[in-house]
Every structure is written in structure tokens, then in C-alpha cells.
Amino acid sequence: MKNNIMESIHNFRDFGRYQTQNGSMVKKGLLYRSASLANASDNDLKKISSLGIKTIIDLRTYQERSKNPDRLPGNSNINSIHIPIKVKMHNESAFLWQLLSLLFGNARKIDYHEAMKEIYREYITSFCFEFSEIIKLASDSRNLPILIHCVGGKDRTGFACSLIQFMLDIPVDLVMQDYLKTNDYSHEIKDEIKKRLKKFSFFGVSIEKFLPLFEARREYFEAAYDQIGNEFGSLDDYVRDGLNFSDKDRQRLKDLLLDK
Predict the structure, then answer these.
(1) 193-244 per-position pLDDT tens digit
(2) CA-to-CA distance for 38 and 65, rounded, in angstroms?
(3) Neighbours of 48 (CB within 10 A)
């Protein structure tokens, strides 16, 4: 599926638009997600302005953000907020672009499918504060509409968006469906990565080995929510005790984002 909303911003979409368990609808045009804005075209910037986006939440690390800064509409009042999420595996994943490591080093030994599951577990064990801050920003009408992004808009962004959706009581099958849509919106990125990796096949390095880094998979999502069960007992307990959101806070989010 080619992204027909933006020219050069991958994986851009409204992650509202869904129906909750009690029949309410999430309002359109308030919740957006995407990959990096570093390569945004001038037309993309005009589109961002036309959508009225007030707040951009950037989940990339300091290094990612410094290397590829976002392009933002000129003369805009958009508030760009940096909430860096850097997992332990981040540096090891970067081995992908280091040929010597691929041929002789640690990157060749890593099971990336299992590594990705561990990254999602780490979201629960180490980043409660960061994800709480994201949801708090979405709970304030002064910040809306918001756009949440990281590099590919897949993992950090995908998990953050799923939390907001769950807190609005969107059914789990729809949350999973939206999470997996990244695979439909990322064919161009995946094809480019395959081209870059193809040269490594001459040294006995399988392209398939590294695909888990660039796909949204049900197992990653499930690993995070299994970790929630292990540490907190239930999603509701995680929201209350991990994210520090009371029932009143959650209701305020619903009042703001749901059509009655």
C-alpha cells in the first residue's frame, strides 16, 4: 500500500477513527502517527499545516534526532517535544550498517526476532515515565491535534499509539490491526533495505535474518502485553500503577477524544 497522504513521510496516518467497545467513535483528525519527518517534502509540510497539528512528539534518541532533524513547517506554532526512548538493543541493532560486524562480529550472532520481543518487554520494564508523558500530552486539548513519531513509526510509536487506543477502550483486535498496518505502509522502506543488504549475501549473510528489525509482528506486540501481565497483573493495573493514570485521568482522555 503506497502512502497517498504524504509524499516523503512514511507510515503517516490517523490512528483514531476506530469504534470503542461501547460503540463510541474516536474523533478523526486529532491523533496522528508517522515515521521520521527528516525527509518531509514541502508539500508534506503544507499538509501538516493544513491538518492543524499543534504538537509533534519525537521519540527518537538524541543521536537519531541530531543526525536527521525533523523538517517542520516554517513560521508555524507547532510545539516539538522530545521524549527519547532508547532501549538496550538500540546500539546492537545499529550493527546492521557495519559490514565488519555483520561478517565477523556480534550482529551475525543475534536472533533479531527474539531481540525485538525483548525490546517490547523493555518498554514495560524501563519506560513507564516516557509513555505516561506521551499520553498526558494527548490528554490536554491545547496539544491537539498531535503527531507521534520515531524513525520508522513502527515500534516506539506503535506501542505508544496502542496504549492510547487501549485507554480509549478500542477492542484489542482493532488495536492489533492498526499496529500491523505499518507493514502495508512500509513496502518502499523494506524494499530499499533489502537492496542494501543484498550485497551481504555474498558473504553468507541472509537477508531474512534481519527482516524482524523492519517488520511489525504480532509476537512483538504480545511480548509487551505479556510483560504487563507479569509485572502488573492487568492492563488496567499497568495504566494505574505503571503509567500513573487514575480512573479520572482516563475518563478525561475519553471525554476529550471520543464522540458521544
Answers:
(1) 666 666 666 666 667 777 888 889 999 999 999 999 999 999 999 999 999 9
(2) 9
(3) 25
Cα torsion 47, 8, 63, 69 to 10°: value is: -50
When computed from its CA atoms, the radius of gyration of the chain, rounded to whole angstroms, is 18
Q: What is the pTM of this model?
A: 0.90
Distances from the Cα of 8 to the Cα of 2, 38, 158, angstroms: 11, 9, 19
Domain boundaries in the chain? 13-259
Model confidence pLDDT, tens digit, residues 5-61: 899 999 999 999 899 999 999 999 999 999 999 999 999 999 999 999 999 999 999
Quick one: CATH architecture of 13-259? Alpha-Beta Complex (3.90)
How far apart (Å, rounded) are the C-alpha atoms in residues 252 and 173? Answer: 24
Q: Cell numbers for 196, please give them.
A: 542494501
